Fold this protein.
Amino acid sequence: MALRVLLGALPLAIFLAAAAFFLWGLNPQRDPSEIPSMLIGKEAPAFELGPIPGADRPGLATADLKGHGVTLVNIFASWCIPCRAEHGVLSKLAGDGVRLVGIDYKDKPADVLKYLGELGNPYERLGADTAGRAGIDWGISGVPETFVVDDKGRVVYRHVGPIAPNQVDDEILPALEQAAK
Amino acid sequence: MRRGLALLLAAALLAPALLAPVAAWAVLPSEKLADPALEARARAISEEIRCVVCQNESVDASDADIAHDLRVLIRERLKAGDSDQQVKDYLVARYGDYVLLKPPFASYTLVLWLGPVAVLLLGGLGAAVFLRSQRRRGGPAAVAPLSPEEVARVAELTGRQGEAPEGGVAHGGAAQGGGAAR
């Protein structure tokens, strides 16, 4: 008798399990193409990049991310259109006193100088990742990507793609606050 | 109009032929290692590494820039003396298990690996329970045989009055004996 009740409830249980799964899958907030970063909670990867000739900024290495407070590490390129879109957002953050450093991914010095000359240079330090090897060490799948690194050089947050203005309040500022703790 | 259709058809037929060599030859000659054994290992590894921008293509097959970088990186690591596993670990350290097209068997992938087996077992169990209950009730073999009136009606419908019933009807008749024997 108990078995019969159990069997009778089985279709309902299967339906509920499937429905819960579909509900999770259909959630518009969920991005199935999002790749979890390996770096969250870990030290920033070891890398050392020379400066961009003519950019008037020092290069960037792992050591520059330790003991300088919370840092926003932005990986960008002059050939990347979404980078252009988020440039204003980054400039505003830097203007508000956030420490912003950049990794120029697979770029030519002349191109990036033109890009920065046109849009302004909000970066405190700029590393030239000509070969794209530092990008792989950071585990990026494309540009732009932005990481929040705390005072001890640990990665707290990763943002894939351009930072939209509304995402500053929703994602970046909370991540910066969390990193400052 | 007809000419446009013919052109479209020709394009559709030709497209795979034009695209296929590109996909098959994503590995550029300049990337290849001189040592054939090392190159074979590099090919085998890169077939199992996911191109992180193309989602479901291996680094070996992808034409993407980052796939090229990863292919070169794999070959560099091999030349530096890394084992196959060390190369994979190097990439996993940066991109996570996501970079492996074949996910590892671990506690957090149990559902993935064992889910299908569990569903198969559940389905088999369901089928077994169903068949058992059928048999306990007597099963489909115990369908009541046709009464003489029904045999007559079937003969009337098939328009073969007086003839011995054939085919499905004959089977019904035979079931009479079979049913009785049980």
Q: What stands out?
A: The longest helix of chain B spans residues 110-136. Chain B has two domains: 2-104, 140-182. Confidence is low (pLDDT under 50) at residues 17-24, 167-182 of chain B. The domain at 2-104 of chain B is CATH 1.10.8.640 (Helicase, Ruva Protein; domain 3).
